[in-house]
Pyridine nucleotide-disulfide oxidoreductase
Amino acid sequence: MAERVDVVVLGLGVGGEEVAGKLAAAGLSVVGIEARLVGGECPYWGCVPSKMMIRASNLLAEGRRIPGMAGASQVDPDWAPVAARIRDEATDSWDDKVAVDRFTGKGGRFVRGWGVLDGHGRVKVGDDVYEATRAVVIGTGTSPSIPPIEGLSGTPYWTNREAIEAAALPESLLVLGGGAIGLELAQMFARFGTTVTVIEALDRLLALEEPESSALAAEALAADGVKVVVGQGAQRVEHGAGGFTVTLADGTSHRAEKLLVATGRRVNLRELGVESIGLDPQARSLAVDDRMRALDNVWAVGDVTGRGAFTHVAMYQAGIAVRDILGQPGPPADYRALPRVTFTDPEIGAVGLTEKQAREQGLSVQTGIGQTPSSTRGWIHKAGNAGFTKLVADTQRGVLVGATSAGPVGGEVLGALAVAVHGEVPVERLRHMIYAYPTFHRGIEDALRDLA
């Protein structure tokens, strides 16, 4: 016999945990189901530990920038404290007891296992069945998308998980994929002394961002000794005692001790039983409306909705779903000002539309660019000051529809631009703001001048 509860949350990643915890705290009977670790990818194999690694590698880079600026330096990388910090501080050795206790402390009931939909309102975990009288929430996230490259399957390649868990540095590393994850890890490992090659099948890195961002990323990686190959997809992978050999479409081969596959993320609905509630198990994502509803009494949040594999999107969607389930007022989902940051050095942050996307939408587009090294703060900063600010304006409405902020703190400067895009602040009003001197965000003012 099924156990009746108010809500069943299937998947306790960032979004699912947020929904489950808030609904439990509101007094509903909530069962939260998770097969792996409560909190999902971000705290254990994603944003948090990777940024610890990047923080460490950036310290090495800053140390190497001392000559000519503040004296002499000798930098000797040591991976041991980085691995220890990830193990002990970030992940508790990949143990989610703290997260489980956080959820159950709010009144939720935690079930460890793989949940499968079994008809409307019903979820099975092994032999147990839970019947949700009020809501089923799906937050099962994504997994690494592994391309069907000849010879790859069955080899001990890395995904982001193995890279994060690495207790020792590889001498050499091949990275398949020139997106955010691949570039962040490539630069980080290179700064610790690993010989790194990045292979991207498309004609530029960060292919969904501005071309200026792609060029900046390529220059930054080259400065750290990373070899970048673009426009050549991997055709064959071989693994042996000497490591990995990857053969490209042009017949050239690249060898390294380890191979990191960072070719995106994918949603897997086939194992969730979505067909039992009339949804397509072959779909690339779960379609939801602006209240996160997939069907009557079924909500979905996070990566599974196809709105980008971002923790901040999952948490944003979770808030909307919670309000809707509780019948509380609040605005619908609005992704016009979706921010994203690639945490390379320089950081590359973007919000809203790129110039290309804006033109494809038929907007009347005007752009402006300010170069960070030409700004007063960039000149002061000197070593490591590469970057730019690019604005994309809709001239008919007189507002920004997109922006990129790249530089030493590009992700932080992005906050002001996200407010401008989200709030549809008139460009003329932005022109007449007071920008603190000398800060990196004065690059916005420089880009506005170029927009004229």
